[in-house]
Amino acid sequence: MGKGGQDYGKSESLDDKREPVGEYHPAWSKDVRECQEKHQVNKDYGLTGDDVRKRRQIHGFNELEKHEGPTVLRLILDQFNDTLVRILLVAAVVSFVLAWYDGDEGGEMEITAFVEPLVIFLILIVNAIVGVWQENNAEKALEALKEIQSEHASVIREGRKISHLPARELVPGDIVELRVGDKIPADMRVLSLISSTLRVEQGSLTGESEAVSKTTKAVAEDVDIQGKKCMVFAGTTVVNGNCVCLVTQTGMSTEIGKVHSQIQEASQNEDDTPLKKKLNEFGELLTAIIGVICALVWLINVKYFLSWEFVDGWPRNFKFSFEKCTYYFEIAVALAVAAIPEGLPAVITTCLALGTRKMAAKNALVRKLPSVETLGCTTVICSDKTGTLTTNQMAVAKLVAMGSEANKVRSFEVQGTTYNPSDGKIENWTDGELDPNLVMIAKIAAICNDADVEKSGHDKSEHCVANGMPTEAALKVLVEKMGLPRELGSSTSSSYDGVLRCSYEWNKIEQRIATLEFDRDRKSMGVIVSSITGKKLLLVKGAVENLLERSSYVQLLDGSVTELNQSSREVILKSLNEMSTRALRVLGFAYTDKLPETFATYDGSEDHPAHELLMNPANYSSIESKLIFVGLAGLRDPPRKEVPQAIEDCRTAGIRVMVITGDNKDTAEAICREIGLNQGTQEIVRLLKDSGEVVAMTGDGVNDAPALKLADIGIAMGIAGTEVAKEASDMVLADDNFSSIVAAVGEGRSIYNNMKAFIRYMISSNIGEVASIFLTAALGIPEGLIPVQLLWVNLVTDGPPATALGFNPPDKDIMKKPPRRSDDSLISPWILFRYLVIGSYVGLATVGIFIIWYTHSSFLGINLIGDGHSLVTYTQLANWGQCHTWQNFTVSPFTAGTLEFKFDNPCDYFHEGKVKAMTLSLSVLVAIEMFNSLNALSEDGSLVSMPPWVNPWLLLAMSVSFGLHFLILYVPFLARVFGIVPLSLNEWLLVLAVALPVILIDEILKFVGRCTSGIRTSNARRSSKHKAE
Questions:
Q1: Closest to 947 in 3D by CA, of 959, 937, 961
Q2: Residue 200 lies in a domain
Q3: Residue 613 in contact with residue 602, Cβ under 8 Å?
Q4: Which Pfam families does the entry link to (predicted)?
Q5: What predicted TM-score, i.e. pTM, was given to this entire model?
Q6: 327 sits in which H/E element
Q7: For 658-710, how does the pLDDT look when each residue is reduced to its tens digit (9 = 90+)?
Q8: pLDDT (tens digit, 9 = 90+) per residue, 492-546?
Q9: Distance between start and end Cα atoms, the chain
Q10: Which residue did the predictor score with more confidence, 489 or 228?
Q11: Helix H segments across 401-543?
Q12: From CA 762, how far away is CA 802, in angstroms rounded?
C-alpha cells in the first residue's frame, strides 16, 4: 500500500534558469521542493522535449566514457617495448644497411643479402600480431559479460510516462519511476515513495551486504555515500518497493562514474610483471655481453684489415682494407644474431596465449598476457566471501516446525546451495506428508513473498536465477522442496511450466489482496489473503524475536492452536540461537485468522474503509498482533561445494588464503570455519605487498576496484562483477568461482615452468652459436656459419621445439611445492653454468666438424673423402688468408649431390669450397639443438624418468624442424639462398656422431644437479633471507 503523488503543475521554462555545468548541489541535504526548484521541474509533468535537448548539450549522454584504450598502432608499438626485441631490431637495421652496401658494391647475390634483415623484420611483425590479437581477444570475451548497466528507464516527460526510454538518454532533471528489480540508471534524489518502504541493494558500490532502506527525508551535507539515505545510485538495484526519483547526476558525474575515472587514471601506471622484469634484465645483460664479445671479435681480427710499419719507433704506412673491415663487421653482426634468441619473444607470447586459452577453458579470462605468469608466483589469495567462496545465492539450510506439544519442535536439515529446487532435498522428509503445521509454513513462505525464480539462458538450462530479494527467493525454493499435500498434489494445474509450481498453487488457493510492507521498526512483512473458503488470513514473516513479541499463540503439529507460554518461547529462542551460531539468517513465520472486523469484507478495493488503515504504515504493528507462531527457517549464502578442496590445495601449494569481506564478523567467521580459513583485514593487501608477497585479490563491486588495482593480480567476477571492477582487473572469472582461481594458479605455475624450459633450451642453443663464431674468429679459420643460417636456426628450426616445450605436461607435484619468490632469478648460477657447458660443446662440435672435414680423411671409422675433396693441414686452414703466398698449393674438385665444385684459383677452396664444411656445421648445430630440446623436458629430471613421449608435441616439432632442414638442403633454390649443399649418408652419420653426446653431457649435469639441489636451495634461502633483512 502507499501514498500517491501530488500535482505540481507543468514544468517551468529553462530559458533563463539553466544551471551552470558542474555547479555543486548536494541534493541529499535539500528537501524535495528545493530539489525540484533547482532543476526547474515537477515530478508529475517532467521535462519538455526542449528542456531535454538543452540539458543534453550541457551534460551529454548518460553513459560511462568508453575508454577505448590504446589504438592498434599503440598496441603494436608496445610489442616492441622489450629489450630483446629492440636489440633484434638494431641487428635487422644493421644487416639491411650491410646488404644494401654489398649490393651497391656488386657483392652477394641480392636475394641472399636481403633474406636476413627481411626475415628478422618478419618475425618482429609476427610477434606483434600475436600479442595484439590475444589482447583484443581478451577484451572481446569481456564484452560478452557487460550486462550490468541499466538499459531502459520508466520516465515522465511532458506529463506522459515513457516506459522504455533508453537509459543513455536521461538528463539531470528527468523524473524516473523505479520498481522492484529495476537497475538504477543514474544518481537520483528520491522524491516520493509509491510503496511504504524502499530498499536498494547497493553492495556493488559500497560493499554493504544488506539492502539499504531509502527515504525522502534530507540528511546532513557532510555524510558519506552510505549515509545518503534519500539518494539512489547508478548501477545499484531496487529489491523492495516503488518510488519516484529526480535525476541529479548522469554519466561520468555519477558515483560509479567517478570511480571509473579514478581506475582509468590508476591503470596508466602499472608495474611490470616479474617475468617481464627478468626478461628485461636479461636483455640488458645480453646487450652488454654482445657488445663486449663483438668488440673482442673485431679486435682479434683487426690485423686482417689494418696493418702498419714501425719507422723510428713510430707506426707508419698504415694499410686499411675497407672490404675486409666490413667482412669482419659482418662476422660481429653474425655474432649478435647468434647471441639474440630471435624466436624467444614470439615463443613467450605464443606460450602465454596458449596459456590463456587453457585458462579460458577453466573459466578464467585473462585480459593481460603477462598475468598468466604472475599467477604462478602468487603467494596469497585475498578473496571476498560473497559469490567467490560462496554461491552468492541464499538457500534455506534448516527448517524448524512446531511439535506435538507447545514445548517441542521438529528440525529438518535442508540440502542444496542454489535456486534450483532440484538441487538437494529436505532430510528425513516424506513427500506429500505435510501436516497442518507444515502446510501453514509453506503457505506463508510462498504467499508472503515478492520474489520469483526462473531458469536463465535462451536454452532454459538448469541454472536458476532469482528476481527480487535473495532471502525470499530461497523461501520459495524451500516451498518447492517441501512439495504439496497429497490431497492437493493430484489436483494441480498442468498449464504452469515455471520453476515454482508449488508456490503457484498456494497463491491460487489463497488470493493475496493486500501487503503490509517490511519496515525496520517492526522487522516483518505481512500479506492479507482471501481463502477460497472466503476466510481472511494475515500471513507474516520476519525477525523471530519481533514476531514472538507480537504472538500470543503457537500452532502445533496437528494444526491445533495453544497459548504461547514461557516454555514454548524458550524452546523457540533456543532454536534461534543454535541457528544464529551457524551464521544463519533466521526468519520466523506466523499468522492470524482474527483480523479486525473492518477487514471481514475487504477485497483490496481502495474505497473500502480497511484500505484507509493500510495507507498508514503506523497501523501495521497493531494489525500484526495476537499472532499464531508456526515455525522458523535458517538461511545462508552457502560455501561452494568445491571450495574446501580448493582451499586445501592452496595450503598444500604454500598459498595463504585470506577473506576480506564487508559482512558482519559472525557471518564471515562462520563461513571461514566451514571452509577452513582465518579472517583477514581490510589493509591486508597493502601489508602483504609491502612484505614482498605476490597478492591475488578478488572483487566484484566498484568499491573493490582500488584493491584490484593494488594487487599484483586483480581478479574480477564475470557474472556479478561491475564494469569498473572488470576494467581494474587482470583476469575475469566467468563462473565467479574460487576454485577457478586455484586452477588458474596451477596453470600459471605450469606455464612458467614450461617457459623456463624453452628459455633454457633457446639460451643454451644461442650460447653454443656464440661459442661457435667466437672460436671461428679466435682460431682464424674460415667463417663456418653465416648470419642467414643462424637466423634460420634461431627462428625456424628452433621455433617449433621451443613452442612445443610450452605443451609440457605439468609436474604431478606442481601444486605441492611452495610458490617461487617473485625476485627469484630466472637463470640461477647453476643453470648458467649448465648453459655454458652445453654451449661450449655446441661451439666445439660445430667448429670441430668444420675442421675435421678439411683435415681428416675419416673420423670414428666414418669415411669422409668419398666426395673427392682435398685435405689440408690445420695450420693451412688457420692461415687461409695467406693462401696466395703458398707455393705449389693445389686442390681437387669435389662433389655434393649432383653438384661438382671446381677451382681455377686454389684459394677459392676456402671461400666457395667451404660450402660442404658449412653444411656440416649447420647440420650439427640443428641436430644438437633438436637433441638439446629433449634435455629441456625437465630442469633436473632424467630422460629415463621423463621420456620424450610425455610430450608428443615435442617429437612432432622435432620432426618438423628436421623436415625444414632437409627442405633447405635438398631443394636447390633454397640451398643456394642459404649457401649449403646436400649431404651423403656417411656425412649424416658424422653429424649424428658429433651431435648425440649433448644428451649424455646434460644427463651428467642433471645428475650433479639432483645431488646438490639441497645445498643450492639452502644457499638460495639464506640469500633471500639476507635480502629481506
A1: 937
A2: yes
A3: no
A4: Cation_ATPase (PF13246), Cation_ATPase_C (PF00689), Cation_ATPase_N (PF00690), E1-E2_ATPase (PF00122), Hydrolase_3 (PF08282)
A5: 0.61
A6: helix 322-339
A7: 876 655 455 556 666 666 656 434 466 777 787 888 888 887 766 677 778 77
A8: 656 677 888 899 889 888 888 888 888 777 888 999 998 877 788 999 999 999 9
A9: 67
A10: 228
A11: 436-447, 470-482, 486-489, 501-509
A12: 7
Residue 964 sits in a domain whose CATH number is 1.20.1110.10
Q: Rounded to the nearest 10 degrees, what angle do helices 343-361 and 83-104 cross at? A: 140
Give the domain CATH number at 650: 3.40.50.1000
Residues 445, 383: one domain? no
895: how many CB neighbours lie within 10 A of its CB? 16
Under 8 Å between Cβ of 367 and 729: yes
Name the burial class of residue 448, with classes exposed (0-12), middle (13-18) and buried (19+) by CB atoms within 10 angstroms of its CB: buried
In a domain, 373, yes or no: no
Q: Does residue 915 lie in a domain region? A: yes
Q: What are the residues whose beta carbons fall under 8 Å from the beta carbon of 404, sequence distance 6 or more? A: 556, 557, 558
Neighbours of 785 (CB within 10 A): 24
Domain that holds residue 732: 379-390+640-736
Asked if residue 179 belongs to a domain, the reply is yes
Q: What pLDDT is attached to residue 560? A: 94
- Annotate 93-140 with DSSP letters as a single string: HHHHHHHHHHHHTT-S-HHHHHHHHHHHHHHHHHHHHHHHHHHHHHHH
* Residue with cell string 539531470: 172
259 and 325 share one domain: no
Nearest to 384 by CA among 734, 705, 692, 822: 705
Whether residue 288 is found in the same domain as residue 338: yes
Q: How far is CA 701 from CA 267, 662, 724, 725, 758, in A?
A: 17, 11, 8, 6, 39
- Model confidence over 371-390: pLDDT tens digits? 777 777 888 888 765 556 77
Q: Which of 82, 102, 174, 384 is catalytic?
A: 384
Q: Is the dihedral of CA 779, 780, 786, 787 positive or negative?
A: positive
Concerning whether 940 is annotated as a catalytic residue, the answer is no
* Sign of the alpha-carbon torsion through 996, 956, 765, 102: positive
Residue 348 identity (one-letter amino acid): I
Report the alpha-carbon angle 559-563-564, nearest 5. Answer: 100
- Measure the CA dihedral 439/445/451/457, to 10°: -50
Do 46 and 7 contact (CB within 8 A), yes or no? Answer: no
Tell me, yes or no, whether 335 and 438 share the same domain.
no
Task: Give the separation between CA 360 and CA 120, rounded to whole angstroms.
Answer: 32
Residue with cell 634461502: 1021
Residue 755 in 3-state DSSP? helix
